[in-house]
Automatic annotation (TrEMBL):
Residues 61-134 form the Putative beta-lactamase-inhibitor-like PepSY-like domain. SUPFAM superfamilies: BT0923-like. Gene3D superfamilies: 3.10.450.360. It comes from the Bacteria. This is Putative PepSY-like beta-lactamase-inhibitor.
């Protein structure tokens, strides 16, 4: 019995040590520095903001940053062309026609999250996650209140 307790104690201590080292390795993030054209385009569109950069699977550069207290993500091509932007929003920032349309079309559902999506040459729209109990639904709505599932 004593041997079993001693072996268990050693195994648990080893497991904790191994887990600790593993956790330290997964927290290491390599910083990405985008090309000058991307940095110039970013500062032209989001003057004064600083970003954390990553490379997307398609080879574009994604910036994550805070602007006016909201988390934003913007994507640029390697030659500096702005492609898209996503901004986390609160309910009070959603335009009234969009709120009214959602409340009318989905009575009883609450708005769980909102992201404003902007693409080059497309009018901005909002991706809204609605919830009621264990039901969840994502819909798109524009400034005028047009809703699309």
């Amino acid at each position: 019995m004593v041997i079993a307790v001693a072996l268990f104690g050693t195994t648990a201590a080893t497991a904790q040590t191994t887990h600790h080292h593993h956790a330290a390795k997964t927290e290491t993030v390599k910083a990405v520095t985008p090309p000058d054209a991307v940095l110039t385009a970013f500062q032209g569109k989001f003057s004064g903001d600083t970003a954390t950069w990553a490379v997307t699977p398609s080879g574009n550069y994604a910036a994550t940053f805070m602007s006016s207290g909201e988390k934003e993500c913007a994507e640029f091509s390697a030659d500096g062309q702005w492609l898209r932007n996503r901004t986390d929003m609160t309910l009070d920032q959603l335009p009234d026609p969009a709120k009214t349309a959602l409340q009318s079309k989905y009575p009883g559902m609450e708005i769980a999250s909102i992201q404003k999506l902007e693409y080059n040459n497309v009018n901005p729209f909002y991706k809204v996650n609605l919830k009621q109990g264990d039901q969840s639904k994502d819909v798109m709505v524009n400034d005028a209140g047009y809703v699309q599932e």
